[in-house]
């Protein structure tokens, strides 16, 4: 029983056992509901390869604050939903490690690029997005559409997530909701007009700086950027595969890890 206690180093700890007895004191229907919820939550771990993957870790996330480190977490695009719980756990752990204490002069900054954010759910992400920059952490999330936030978190919570970021960027081909979002945050142009030079009466005319249709149809090599209280900008971009230096770097093979164990190779997860 020791290995299953909350404090494995204390053989006399009965916290987990007491919690289990507390669950069993409920009515049969309630206990059955708890069991079904537990089975559903642990279903993915019934896959032996996933269980082996999560059994141990040789990575201390707090080291990224003191040693220059790059971590890539890559999942098959077609299995993004299946692995979403692992992705959420990993990023929640990264956020906690970065926010455990205030940084000092020796603390390294952390840059987080979270692609396909719409496929995962992070608990308390609004508070994280609003406060993590104070811990010398740059957080960027990438979505296929803003509607993904609404579908995953609900409209009100999605709006709160959007409010936690200072900079927004979009490329060509934005969906209607994303295009309308950028139309609104880019703002309007206000023109002041007079019929005659000496006419004391002013007339005003307002119109969108960019309409949603114009946001959607920007050139394929352009991007729109709106940052904080600055004016929006429209920039030319170059894909990495059209840049000789970046293209050459992308063709390099995977880095061989010094001391990495090859004794127990992890089999591919078949779904």
DSSP strand tally: 7
Overall, the morphology is: extended
| Radius of gyration, taken over Cα atoms and rounded to an integer in Å | 25 Å
Structural class: alpha+beta
Q: Ends: how far apart? A: 33 Å
Q: Classify the helix fraction into a percent range.
A: 25-40%
Largest sheet at a glance?
3 strands, antiparallel
Order of helices and strands: HHHHEHEHHEHEEHEEH
Task: Give the percentage of residues in beta strands.
Answer: 5-15%
Average residue pLDDT: 83
Number of helical runs? Answer: 10
Residue windows where pLDDT falls under 50 for at least 5 positions? none
How are the strands ordered across the major sheet? 3-6-7
Description:
The chain has 271 residues and is an alpha+beta fold. The chain has a domain at 59-165. Helices cover 34% and strands 13% of the residues. The chain has helices at residues 15-24, 28-41, 48-53, 84-98, 125-131, 147-153, 155-163, 176-186, 212-216, 244-250; strands at residues 110-114, 137-141, 167-170, 188-193, 203-208, 222-227, 233-236. The protein has a three-stranded antiparallel sheet with strand order 3-6-7, covered by helices on one side. A two-stranded parallel ribbon has the order 1-2. β6 (222-227) and β7 form a beta hairpin. α6 crosses α7 (155-163). The radius of gyration is 25 Å and the shape is extended. The two termini are 33 Å apart. One of its GO terms (cellular component) is plasma membrane. This is TraD/TraG TraM recognition site domain-containing protein. It is found in: Cell membrane.
């Amino acid at each position: 029983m020791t290995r299953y206690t909350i404090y494995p180093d204390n053989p006399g700890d009965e916290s987990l056992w007491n919690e289990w007895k507390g669950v069993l004191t409920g009515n049969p229907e309630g206990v059955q509901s708890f069991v079904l919820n537990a089975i559903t939550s642990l279903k993915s771990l019934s896959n032996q390869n996933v269980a082996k993957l999560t059994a141990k870790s040789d990575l201390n996330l707090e080291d990224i604050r003191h040693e220059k480190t790059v971590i890539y977490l890559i999942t098959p695009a077609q299995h993004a939903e299946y692995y979403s719980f692992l992705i959420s756990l990993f990023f929640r752990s990264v956020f906690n490690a970065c926010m455990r204490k205030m940084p000092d002069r020796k603390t390294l900054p952390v840059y987080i690029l979270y692609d396909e954010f719409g496929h995962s759910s992070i608990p308390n992400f609004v508070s994280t997005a609003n406060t993590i920059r104070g811990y010398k952490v740059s957080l960027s999330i990438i979505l296929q559409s803003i509607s993904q936030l609404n579908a995953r978190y609900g409209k009100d919570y999605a709006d709160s997530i959007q409010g936690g970021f200072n900079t927004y960027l979009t490329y060509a081909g934005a969906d209607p909701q994303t295009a309308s979002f950028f139309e609104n945050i880019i703002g309007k142009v206000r023109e002041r007009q007079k019929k005659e030079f000496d006419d004391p009466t002013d007339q005003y005319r307002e119109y969108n700086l960019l309409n949603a249709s114009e946001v959607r149809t920007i050139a394929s090599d352009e991007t729109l950027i709106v940052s904080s209280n600055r004016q929006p900008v429209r920039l030319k971009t170059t894909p990495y595969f059209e840049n000789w230096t970046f293209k050459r770097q992308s063709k390099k093979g995977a880095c061989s890890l010094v001391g990495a164990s090859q004794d127990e190779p992890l089999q591919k997860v078949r779904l």
